[in-house]
Amino acid sequence: MSVWAILVAAGRGERLGLEQPKAFAKLGEDPLLAEPLRRLDECEWIDALVVVAPPGWEEPAILLAEELGCAKVSECVAGGATRTDSVRAGLAAVPEDALVVLVHDAARPFVSDEVVGRVLAPLSEGWDGAIPGLPVPDTLKRVDGDGAVRETVSRDGLWAVQTPQAFLADALRRAYARAGDATDCAALVEAAGGRVKVVEGDPRLLKVTTTADLERVASWL
Ligand code: CTP
Ligand code: MG
Questions:
Q1: Coil, strand, or helix at residue 44?
Q2: 182 lines ligand 1 (CB under 6 A)
Q3: Rounded to two decimals, what is the model's pTM?
């Protein structure tokens, strides 16, 4: 079974608000991208990697992979305007004979071997995809623009989902051959009729969105 990983790092990081794209924000000594890149490259379950960089940042991304001694990086391609476009660009660089494709947000630097193992396991049990998630702990409200509460939403059965997300390559390709945009890959696979399972996620898969998130993640280094 050949497992390819697509590391999507092409976002601008508007909410972080730095000069450079979020993947090149400093996390300790290195750019943020270094942490997930090194972790996926070292992961025994993964055979090869495609890095999706912000347009114009392909060269620095390749240099970083070389500096880190990442042996599994096959290609670095430029991303698109949306996450969906960036995943599609990465998928085009995955060879036809790949059986499984794992997609991970570079903005979640602390990916672990354990969670990769958890999302891969259901793919040999008849599932088209598996994604990590955590049950939503807070009470949920639907709120109007002026702050008025419209309703309290039951959190029963609601999960907040993360990446890495793993899919049978055929199911992911079918989903991305269709039109549509979504904030995660699973939504497109679900829309295409795929069966997706949620497995236990990890609080350390926090997505870096704001400066406070970056500081929090830096404290885990
Ligand atoms: N991403 C991408 N291409 C895009 C948009 C997002 O590859 N056009 C990636 C980001 O690099 C990130 C992941 O998708 O690893 C999740 O996106 P998000 O956290 O929203 O990052 P940004 O879009 O960069 O941040 P912002 O929305 O604040 O601009
Ligand atoms: Mg975004």
A1: coil
A2: no
A3: 0.97
